Amino acid sequence: MASEVKLYGRDAAFSFSFRLSLANSTLPSFPIRVSFGPPKTRNCRILAMAIKRSPKRLKYSAPRFTKEDGLLYVEADPSGADTWKLEPVVNLLKEGAVGVIPTDTMYAIACDLRSHSAIERLRRIKNIEASKPLSILCHSFRDIDKYTTGFPCGDGQGHANIFKAVKHCLPGPYTFILTASKELPKQCIRYGTASAKYAARKNVGVRMPDDAICQAILEKMDAPLLCTSVKCPKENEWMIDPVMIADAYGPEGLDFVVDGGVRVADPSTVVDMTKIPPTVIREGKGPILHWMGVEDDLKGVFLEENFIPSAI
Fold this sequence. Notes:
The chain has 312 residues and is of the alpha/beta class. Helices cover 23% and strands 23% of the residues. It has ten helices and 15 strands.
């Protein structure tokens, strides 16, 4: 009996064939072929999903990550089940990279707040004026306490300890406006002009997203990330598809994009904590709670003066 075995690829289908001949028979021998499909693994499901994507998306598709024209594109499970894929992203951020990461609302362009050159590049990529402050993404209340003066406490005059209420909101889809501490680099709040150098400390928007991918990145960093929202360069509309974001901002100098799936265009609720009571100046994904006041015009002075150009 003669036999032949063939294997194709690591996860590909394989087959083997053999020729059967009967002993002491005058009948001619004949071949028999048996084929097996690939095992039903998670990799196969990812491939099936990729096939359904458009050809434009396939350019960026890969089981782990790809790098085209200097752009690292990482596909990560929204549940955070494969955070090991984020190691290259964290390394790039620590080296001064600028890239796109998901949050619990939308996607954000982010960089290490301690990197002067990265902040300059972020502003240039997003075309943000140098005098305008940015928001920060924090992993924990410890980060908030370090880079801001914290949340207001009860004053004994009927105003409750707001911190206790905020603890039930974070992590969550809120941007809280707080007074920056001296630990926050000046370029994060006022930067680029001689007059700003001597200006008083300003406020900063603080986020603690309830997103597994974002929190995994922040946990591996030893400082918050400076961030701004992702909008279409030509139209003032939110961009929620990471493939489209890579196409639009990759040529502008992005170093990486983390794909956590298509999001919904629902930004965070912005609450000014420097006022008593804390005041909602933009209603978004986070519900307005009983201890929050509301601006008559939810566009508010805060957004008109661009204290935060685009809170995510």
